[in-house]
Amino acid sequence: MNSKISGFYKLNVGERLKKITQEANLNMEEAASLAGVGLGSDLADKMVENVIGTFELPVGVAVNFQINGIDYLIPMVTEEPSVIAAASNAAKMIREGGGFKAQSTQPVMIGQIQLIECGQDSMEKIRSKKQEYLDFLKSVDPTLVKFGGGPVDITVREVSDMVVVHLHVNVADAMGANAVNTMCEAIAPKLEEVTTGRAILKILTNYAVERTATARVVVPKSAVGGGEVVDRIIWACKLANEDVYRAVTHNKGIMNGVTSVVLATGNDTRAVEAGCHSFAVKNGRYTSLSKWAKNPNGDLEGELTIPVAVGLVGGATKTHPVAKTCVKILGVKTSRELGEILACVGLAQNLAAIRALADEGIQTGHMRLHAKNIAVLAGATGEKIDEVAEKMVASGKVSVDEAKKMFGQ
Question: Among 202, 366, 372, 391, which one carries the catalytic annotation?
């Protein structure tokens, strides 16, 4: 696969789809799912309750991504203009410095069992039976064990006047909620027996601190606009590191990329969002998820680590036709590979945003793309959309009223 597609944004929708179909070796059915013949009402009715229809969002593809020496085309689902263009542009800059370097931890998720009214020495009693409990839990989900996963540890915490048991489970290529929740419920009676307490909550936590992915990049100063822009980017990141008001928006920009790919692959956007934002406050205050610095050559170095509770088996990933096609376009084989891609896309999105903010300002590029939406709202169609959008950007006035005036000329 070659992700460096020159002038991809200049192609029309049909031409882009044809190009991606060729690069990702999609069949007719998979290509059709992207062309708007995807999730039907019958299948939707089997996914959630009280279905009355479906809701569509645009699927775009970010280009230029090279991760650990491999090219990837990145499907992204979002309603926000400039997100996909920004990711592609940042990936192009990063490619000049050798592309992304990514790594990840084992896919370990944590389940919690809350115990109340426990007897004396409950925590020590649980610890003494750890191996016995691990052996039992392996029998609860032998299929997971067969595929290289399964329980790997049990830890115990005291929270106020409660005992909280953590099951650490390698969930392999699943997101893991069902497997972990089943184990939590299965072990709860044994924990009640040994502690003489009562189990209340038995559920996975989305604070996936043991399942993370890290992306690192070196971006030549020439690629971002020179040494002064590098310095301005570092100053922008310093504010995000030290000020919560900036950090929230800074991290929202990162999640523009991460969430778009999570959604495209049929994974749980809320779980990933909750985990990432909680991770940003792991040291006691909310701060930037990314780090940027200048190396001795004056080039820009960036790093991002995020929790990545995503899978490739089960749920919408395996049932939604568009999600299945997006996974094929990505070409990923494991959940760890998918997590590493998420970290890379988040870092690219962050670079694009802070470079724009530190240099020309965020509105220049964003309004250029937003103007097309405004032109459509004003009634423009076909070639008139681009014509009206360009006139509005040139005038510096982007509004429905302005578009109507120009459309009427």
Answer: 366
